[in-house]
């Protein structure tokens, strides 16, 4: 479970990106985070990942108050979360297999476990036949699948996706959404920031809308609600 209690984030230049946010995201939820540019979506995600700390309030992730966590323990927190970005961020000099295996090597997983887990995850994202390819030999959709495989290979409780379909054509974007929903069905909480109106409107999931750093909507089966 994720909980933000009275969370305010003011950047050093005095800009208040989020004001007094209170929200609970239950285990297994699928949440779209929407809102106009500058509304605070990226800041929300950075707070979850503890890339930035709130000015006020507390953030609880899987029972841990992350605002009280020492720097030394941040890697432990990050293990509970997988992250996917719009621009994939794969390592260009590693193959598909190596990109995914690397995420397990970092947490010092046993080599035997890596050899067992990586092919399983690659099969799940439909990339078994591309495991020896390098990122620049793959389509955008395939690269995003690798990045999703890397994000979930250590079985995180939460998958955070920041505009995961932003660089993809509509058909490919839908394939990625199917995959995210499939991962969510297996029990992983998904939090996805997006400007993809059609996807949000069709999927009928929980929608949290931010405007000027405040939550203006939180609907169980929500819609995008903006004209882009
Ligand atoms: N490092 C920073 N220093 C100062 N102000 C910042 C910083 N990062 C973001 N902001 C400001 O905080 C506000 C919220 O920004 P944020 O990036 O969270 O919005 P967003 O909803 O993700 O926007 P977009 O949809 O364009 O990605 C904006 O006014 C932005 O200019």
From TrEMBL:
PANTHER family: CELL DIVISION ATP-BINDING PROTEIN FTSE (PTHR24220:SF470), IMPORT ATP-BINDING PROTEIN (PTHR24220). Part of the ABC transporter FtsEX involved in cellular division. Keywords: ATP-binding, Cell cycle, Cell division, Cell membrane, Membrane, Nucleotide-binding. It is a peripheral membrane protein. One of its GO terms (biological process) is cell division. Coiled coil: none annotated. NCBIfam families: FtsE (TIGR02673). The lineage of its organism: Bacteria, Bacillati, Bacillota, Clostridia, Peptostreptococcales. It comes from the Bacteria. One of its GO terms (cellular component) is plasma membrane. InterPro entries: AAA+_ATPase, ABC_transporter-like_ATP-bd, ABC_transporter-like_CS, ABC_transpr_LolD-like, Cell_div_FtsE, P-loop_NTPase. The gene is ftsE. PROSITE patterns: ABC_TRANSPORTER_1, ABC_TRANSPORTER_2. This is Cell division ATP-binding protein FtsE. It is found in: Cell membrane. Residues 2-227 form the ABC transporter domain. Belongs to the ABC transporter superfamily. Homodimer. Forms a membrane-associated complex with FtsX. The keyword rRNA-binding does not apply. GO terms for molecular function: ATP binding; ATP hydrolysis activity; transmembrane transporter activity. Pfam families: ABC_tran.
């Amino acid at each position: 479970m994720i909980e933000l209690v009275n969370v305010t984030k003011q950047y050093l230049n005095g800009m208040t990106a989020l004001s007094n946010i209170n929200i609970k995201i239950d285990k297994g939820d699928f949440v779209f985070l929407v809102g106009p540019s500058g509304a605070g979506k990226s800041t929300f995600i950075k707070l979850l990942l503890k890339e930035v700390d709130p000015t006020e309030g507390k953030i609880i992730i899987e029972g841990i108050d992350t605002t009280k966590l020492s720097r030394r323990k941040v890697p432990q927190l990050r293990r509970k979360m997988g992250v996917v970005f719009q621009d994939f961020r794969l390592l260009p000099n590693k193959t598909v297999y190596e990109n995914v295996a690397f995420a397990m090597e970092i947490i010092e997983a046993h080599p035997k476990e890596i050899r067992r887990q990586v092919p399983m995850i690659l099969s799940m994202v439909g990339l078994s036949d591309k495991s020896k390819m390098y990122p620049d030999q793959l389509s955008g959709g395939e690269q995003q699948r690798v990045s999703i495989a890397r994000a979930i290979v250590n079985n995180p409780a939460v998958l955070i996706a920041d505009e995961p379909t932003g660089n993809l054509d509509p058909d490919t974007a839908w394939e990625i959404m199917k995959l995210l929903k499939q991962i969510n069905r297996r029990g992983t909480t998904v939090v996805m920031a997006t400007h993809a109106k059609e996807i949000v409107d069709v999927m009928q999931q929980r929608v949290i809308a931010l405007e000027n750093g405040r939550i203006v909507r939180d609907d169980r089966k929500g819609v995008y609600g903006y004209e882009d």
